[in-house]
Amino acid sequence: MQHLSLATRLSIALAVVALALLGAGGAWQLAAERDDLDDAVERELRMLGRSLQVSFENALRDRQSEDVHDTLDALDRLDPTVDVVVLDAQDRVLASSDGADLVAARAVASGFHADHGSAELRLPLRADTRRAHLVLVRPTTDVERDLAATRRRVAGSLAIYVFLLLLTTVIATRLWVGAPLARMLAHIRRVRAGDLSVPAHPSLKRDEIGETVHEFERLVEDLASARARLEAETEARRGFERAVREMDKLATLGQLAAGLAHEIGSPLQVLEGRLASLEKRAGDPDETRRLAGIAREQAARITRIVARLSNLTRRPTSPTHVDPREPVRSILSLLEPEARRRGVRWEAELADDVPTMHADPDALQQITLNLVRNAIEASSAGDSVVVRLDREGDDAITLEVRDTGRGMSPEHRDRAFEPFFTTRADGTGLGLAVVRGIVTELRGEIAFESELERGTRVRVVLPRSEGATRRIDDER
After folding, report:
1. What residue ranges in 26-117 does DSSP mark as E strands?
2. Model confidence at 31, in pLDDT bands (50, 70, 90)?
3. Angle of helix 141-173 relative to helix 6-61, nearest 10 degrees?
4. What is this structure's pTM?
5. Which among 18, 153, 132 has a CA at the least distance from the CA of 86?
6. Structural domains in the chain?
């Protein structure tokens, strides 16, 4: 069912109130008119009755009945609408005007009565010891006719007044209430749809509703300005975060280069020694083949190390369906030599039932790289680093990195995610800040626990859905 507009409801309410008030006023006016007409009829009958009362009392006292009849005949000629009846004490008719309703006259009680289209007046007559009554009966058709005319005038006035009131109310409410509210409603719908522009309209009246509309439009303008500032700040923040991630990657590459120099240096030394031997024993085919095989193996080893390092410098890929174990494994294989060189025990727990997810492999690699590298840096010989990858229900995966290294004090733990905050002399302070930024963009959650001399535990939960990774893809 369609709802009535505010203007229509106001018009109906005012019409009902006006009808009630004017109807009550009209009824009171009609009642007052009837009372006035009844009073006028009563005065008329009493004046006539007093005149006849004196005349009839004298005639009855003198026993001149002919004078009574003569008076009644004269009155009947002058005003035939008034019936006059003279009754004795037993309501027997002593005299009456022509056509008088004798039955109605006998039924009249003492005093004045007006009812059923007629008015009656009964007066006592005193004539010596004889008691009689004078009864005057007058039809009130003229009174009813005047009342009917008054009733029609009141009804007509009421109809015209209500019509004009309704017309004025409809026009006024549509101009002063309906139009401004419709304008503000259209603005609200546009704002809800994301359009914060304020279209030009004729200026409204400076009343409460007009001020409300103007205040709403100013609010929309402020929202548009705030959104523009927020978008600019967001874009600047995203640029800063991208720069921070790139700085962190470059710092990581610099630190990895030192560790990888040792890994590459060993096969290069072997390769150099075998090539020198090959040069000396070029005439021995069997020894040449053996030395060439060793050289090939060491060259392949160098190639693998360089390939792992180059994976970190490649351009980011678009989000795709990926097995999260693959980027995690690639980082673990890259950092495992560093952990072995430091004497850190190494353990990887990658569950077999980890589901695929829609994500950027580079983002997963960067999260794993920063967390595992921090764990290795915080660990000493004999400490352990455990990397666990598992499913979190049906809609998320969990990456957890924990170590038994030196941990962090409470005051340092509270600042762990601050950019450029570090407890290492050679650190950049970007690792955890970058991780949190990536996890936030992926709509994930990160939990950080650390205790001094007891180790650190970082737990990252990432959703599998496509919508969770769309934002980072848009930024790139």
Report:
1. 83-88, 93-96, 111-115
2. confident
3. 160
4. 0.41
5. 132
6. 6-162 (3.30.450.20), 320-476 (3.30.565.10)
